[in-house]
Design a protein that fits this description.
Helices cover about 25% and strands about 35% of the residues. Strands 1-2 form a two-stranded antiparallel sheet. A two-stranded antiparallel ribbon has the order 3-4.
């Protein structure tokens, strides 16, 4: 699922996607926005678990 990343100041849509960490400047108001994932999504955790299982075979 793609996340909408919006400016914290003016709420302009800056990007869509899955991000771990992103620093992006809003072209409308000039605010620097720092976006960090607080915890992995369910899909990311499941994919990571599947890789570990495959690597252990």
């Amino acid at each position: 699922m793609r996340q909408e990343i919006r400016c914290g100041q003016c709420n302009r849509l800056l990007a869509k996607g899955d991000v771990r960490e992103l620093e992006i400047k809003c072209r409308r108001c000039g605010t620097m926005n720092l976006v960090r994932t607080t915890r992995p999504s369910r899909e990311a955790r499941e994919a990571h678990s599947e890789k570990r299982v495959e690597n252990n075979r």
